[in-house]
Amino acid sequence: MTNLEPRPEHHFTFGLWTVGNPGRDPFGEPTRRPMEPRYMLGHLAELGAYGVSLHDNDLVPIDTSAAEHDRIVADFARGLQETGLVVGMATTNLFTHPAFKDGALTSADARVRAYALHKVLHAVDLGAELGAGVFVFWGGREGAEVDAGGNALDGLARLRDALNFVEAYSRDQGYDLRFALEPKPNEPRGDLYLPTVGSALGFITTLDRPDAFGLNPEFAHETMAGLNFVHAVAQALDAGKLFHIDLNDQKMGRFDQDLRFGAENLKSAFFLVKLLEDAGYEGMRHFDAHALRTEDEAGVWEFARGCMRTYLILLERARQFDADPEIQAALEAYRVGDQELEELTRRYSAERARALKERSFDREALGARGPGLERLDQLTVELLLGARS
Fold this sequence. Notes:
By secondary structure, this protein is α/β, with parallel strands linked by helices. The protein folds into 2 domains: 8-322, Divalent-metal-dependent TIM barrel enzymes (TIM Barrel, Alpha-Beta Barrel); 325-384. The chain is built from 16 helices and 10 strands. It has helices spanning 16-19, 37-47, 56-59, 66-83, 110-129, 152-173, 197-204, 219-224, 229-238, 266-278, 297-323, 325-334, 339-346, 350-358, 363-368, 373-384; strands at residues 12-15, 51-55, 86-91, 134-138, 143-144, 178-182, 191-192, 213-215, 246-247, 285-287. The strands form 2 sheets. It has an 8-stranded parallel β-sheet with strand order 8-6-4-3-2-1-10-9. Strands 5-7 form a two-stranded antiparallel ribbon. It is globular. The model has no long low-confidence stretch (mean pLDDT 97).
């Protein structure tokens, strides 16, 4: 197997909130001590990471004075310069403070909406100052438990107005930022607006500048809803809207677990890596996951190293998949080509439609053919288990 040591050119990034997760959950207190951002930078650089991402308050506490804000940001910028890491993505925490308990940008309270927008604009400034290329919107509190409080159309309209405002502000400041929506079906709200990749793609078309907006899909979020994350990412890629991606793992139907990448669904992780690499995706490979609550700090760095190594192992397996003659022969048998019919069905014309309607097909033969998917899937499993050289 080739070198599995992560390097900056792999574009692996981690959120400050991921490696910095102290092991708190809704039923228990933290199991690890907090780590300072500069400290995390040094360890991630040693592991071969490319960069970090951050919420505004991951770096600057919410009640910080303007002078202290400037000091913290300048110190962090020096840390980036010293380690060679970059900020690949920035975002805003619109979910922790009680002010956002019933929504932020979509709140029924105009004062809350204004404060949320105020907070986003400052976070956009911070992201631009630190060189982030993408700004993510995860609507953690943008949703509802009680539909009697108002029409969901109101929430979508408020979200649309806010996103248009932020994009126009960013453009007016001359920032080189793209914006990515992060879908999630539920948690922490009972139901979240824009629950899936498909719904977010549809919403983007209603914005003033759809070209400025794309997606930041997360493995766990689509999996929570029982959906196929690989298919969701393919849809984002097909639309030219994969601006950023969150890699982790998840058991279907559970709370948002943010498990180490590849820890649960190895076959899905494999096909995701293959899809990203085959498509020539040039963005960050961002790990939005965290170490198990059982772990101490040493376990945190094992978790981070494991995320990156698993991606690289699966990348090596993807190359083996493409080079395996038996797998490629099975694929060739599965994909039945017909040059004449492909030309006939590629683009509409009256003549092609007429010729297609007049064509006769052997339904029985088409239905009787076995495409060989059982064998192809077994060969894939054997490859992943290391049984194919």
